[in-house]
Each structure stands twice: as structure tokens, then as C-alpha cells.
What we know:
By secondary structure, the chain is mainly alpha-helical. The protein contains seven helices and no strands.
Amino acid sequence: MAVYATIADLQARHRDQLTLVAADEETGLRDDVRIDAGLVDASTEIRAILAARYSSSDLASLDEDSLAVLRVYCMDIAFYRIALAFSRSSDAIKERYDVAIKRLEAIASGKGALTTTGGGAAGGSAAGDVGQNEVIVEAPERMFTRERLGRI
Length: 152
């Protein structure tokens, strides 16, 4: 099971806050084990939300742009979970979590999309020239046409 963000990503985005929020109660040092657990939980939550629209294989073949979007959401969700684990949550952390969840739910409901390395939208057709919201209909040739029936 892949995670969408790493401790290094969190460190780069929340450099000062991460150490304050994730400091062990006894030693005062950053607890990377609980941070990793928060990242795994956040990635699991993301997959659970996106499962409404995307299969596991779709999520495994996301392109770099889509992975970058999920990385941002994963960091916000993980940071909230980490803050809760250490009883150091704040309104700003909760607000970022809520926004990330709402955006993921919007993607899952079709108000946004993630793209795969194959060039098409995840969950879509394999044809490269078909957009994610286009309908493809395959049907046999019409039997009754004006030419075949003659002019009446």
C-alpha cells in the first residue's frame, strides 16, 4: 500500500510546526513512528474516498500532476491526524483537513478528475482522444435508412 506523502514532504511544508505538533510527550523529540502512522492513515482515507469513482488500478497509475494534488491533501489530512494523536490540534489544522476532505469528495463525485500515465482520465476509456465526460456509444449500423427504404 503506497502512501501519497512522506515525512520529508511534511517537513518541507510544515517545517517548524511538525516538530512542535509531533514532539514526544516524554522526550520532546519528533516521533516519526506516529507521523508515519498518520501518513498511512491519511493515504487510506484518501483511497476510501476516491474508491467511489476510481479503482485500485486507476489510483496506482496516476500521473505526477495527480499525485502532487493527492500529496497536498494527504499532508493536510495526516497533519490533522498527527495533531490529534498528540492532542495538539488547532482550528487552522482542522480547517485544512476539512477543505482537503471536501475537495477529495468533489473529485470522487465527478466535479474534478485525476489523470493517469496513459493520458486519459482515470476510470475512463483507453482511447487517448476521448475526454473524461464524453460518452462513447458502440452500436451496429442502422438497418432502416432513407436510402434502403426508398423515398416514400
